[in-house]
């Protein structure tokens, strides 16, 4: 089966009702609730939303996102024709081009210094993506869910906070949070959740999605904690212009 045609909204996907029990989205919400709350309440996120993170801290966040999404989107092409993961290769969600535009505003020579600003927790996260999300369709789906549905939900709050906190610099370096190819975010999120629930996953694969989503949230919490700690380290300052 080839991936469904992509347009401005998520397309349809063949459904196979092979597993009884709660919808996958309900299981994901329940299993990740604790880690999700810990991610949202880390000091770094709380300070970012409140506009208290120094600009160098925001720069560091953009760099971590670049490393993470480059890994996740780097494995997407291999899943395009997969009967499960192919439904989640969605071009209008891809974030790397936006992140690189943001970094280009922050520093024209950003590629020369970004690698050394990648934190150890981010390196661990990337390694997980390059092994598990690259080899198991259910793992790819799990990481896709954690990252992109988060961007379409709480990420919208963060984006507005960045624009308020950093003014013109924030507006010009926060395109990551804007999904210009999506007409309306909420209907898109709703269709995304339906796609998860209708995905032709076996019972074992559904268990795998849930377990890997928990792992993805834990990895994200580790990155956010290191970002908070790195904010006190002058080595993680702004990218030089």
Report low-confidence residues grouped into runs of 5 or more.
Answer: 1-17, 233-241
Number of strands: 0
**What is the C-level CATH assignment?**
Mainly Alpha
Q: Label the overall shape.
A: globular
Structural class category: mainly alpha
The Cα radius of gyration reads 18 Å
How many helices? 9
Could you give me the name of the CATH homologous superfamily? Heme oxygenase-like
Q: Looking at CATH, which topology would you report?
A: Heme Oxygenase, Chain A
Order of helices and strands: HHHHHHHHH
For the record, the count of structural domains works out to 1
Helix residue percentage? 55-70%
Largest sheet geometry: none
Query: Architecture, according to CATH?
Result: Up-down Bundle
Question: Notable features of this structure?
Answer:
9 helices; single chain; Heme Oxygenase, Chain A; mainly alpha
SSE arrangement:
Layout: H1 24-40, H2 43-50, H3 55-74, H4 96-106, H5 120-135, H6 137-152, H7 154-172, H8 185-198, H9 203-230
Describe the structure concisely.
With 241 residues, the chain is mainly alpha-helical.
Structure description:
It comes from Jatrophihabitans endophyticus. InterPro entries: Haem_Oase, Haem_Oase-like, Haem_Oase-like_multi-hlx. One of its GO terms (molecular function) is metal ion binding. This protein is an all-alpha fold and 241 residues long. It has one domain: Heme Oxygenase, Chain A (Up-down Bundle), CATH 1.20.910. Helices cover 62% and strands 0% of the residues. 38% of the residues are buried. The N terminus and C terminus are likely disordered.
């Amino acid at each position: 089966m080839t991936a469904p045609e992509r347009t401005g909204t998520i397309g349809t996907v063949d459904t196979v009702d092979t597993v009884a029990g709660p919808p996958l989205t309900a299981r994901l919400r329940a299993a990740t609730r604790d880690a999700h709350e810990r991610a949202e309440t880390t000091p770094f996120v709380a300070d970012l939303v409140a506009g208290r993170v120094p600009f160098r801290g925001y720069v560091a966040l953009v760099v971590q996102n670049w490393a993470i999404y480059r890994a996740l989107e780097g494995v997407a092409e291999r899943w395009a024709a997969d009967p499960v993961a192919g439904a989640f290769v969605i071009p209008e969600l891809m974030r790397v081009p936006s992140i690189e535009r943001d970094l280009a505003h922050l520093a024209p020579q950003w590629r020369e210094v970004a690698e050394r600003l990648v934190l150890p927790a981010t390196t661990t996260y990337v390694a997980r993506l390059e092994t598990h999300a690259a080899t198991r369709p259910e793992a790819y789906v799990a990481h896709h869910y954690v990252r992109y549905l988060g961007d379409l939900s709480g990420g919208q709050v963060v984006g507005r906070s960045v624009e308020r906190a950093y003014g013109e610099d924030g507006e010009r370096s926060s395109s990551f949070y804007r999904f210009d190819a999506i007409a309306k975010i909420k209907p898109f999120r709703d269709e995304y959740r339906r796609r998860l629930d209708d995905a032709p996953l076996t019972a074992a694969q559904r268990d795998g999605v849930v377990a890997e989503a928990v792992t993805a949230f834990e990895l994200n919490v580790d990155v956010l904690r290191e970002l908070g700690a790195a904010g006190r380290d002058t080595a993680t300052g702004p990218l030089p212009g």
